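Lecture notes, part 5. Sequence design as translation. It can be helpful to think of inverse folding as translation between two languages: the language of shapes and the language of residues. The source text, in structure tokens, appears below.
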């Protein structure tokens, strides 16, 4: 694990041990997530307003339920400023991935988007697809890297 050729912020290449883990062949689909929400009444993290006491000084419009949405820049932009290609959109959530006017109609078999790791964990636990529900372990970097490297047969990833 690690990187010493491209990403300077990475640690040096080093060996790690990965404990056993399970990984699904497919992502959670919109249909599966909808079924989870309907069965449990679950409300995702981006569907809840933020508490102003936890975020002093943040403008009220940014405390409303919503999420970050990719916004294609018209041309070359400063890559150091994520505001050049991401926008906070009130009302963006798993059912309305790019904002309140969007929807997932006809996209039942597509991967669900606009969910947090906590949302995914809750869904997977409910579905019985996550063996480590009680340990709070999901897709840690080492596990994902080991799968990717195994699939790439040792090629640089």
């Amino acid at each position: 694990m690690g990187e010493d050729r491209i990403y300077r912020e990475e640690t040096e290449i080093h060996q790690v041990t990965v404990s056993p883990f399970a990984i699904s062949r497919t992502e959670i689909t919109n249909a599966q997530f909808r079924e989870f929400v309907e069965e449990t009444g679950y409300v995702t993290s981006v569907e809840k307003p933020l508490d102003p006491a936890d975020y002093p000084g943040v403008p009220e419009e940014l405390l409303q339920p919503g999420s970050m949405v990719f916004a294609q820049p018209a041309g070359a932009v400063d890559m150091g400023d994520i505001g050049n290609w991401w926008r906070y959109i009130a009302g963006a959530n798993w059912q309305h991935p790019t904002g309140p006017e969007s929807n997932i109609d006809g996209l039942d078999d597509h991967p669900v988007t606009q969910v947090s790791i906590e949302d995914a964990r809750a869904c997977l636990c409910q579905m019985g697809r996550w063996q480590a529900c009680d340990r709070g372990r999901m897709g840690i970097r080492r596990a994902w890297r080991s799968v990717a490297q195994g699939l790439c047969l040792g090629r640089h990833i």
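The translated text above is only one of many valid answers, since several sequences can fold into similar shapes. Helices lie at 30-40, 117-127, 141-151.
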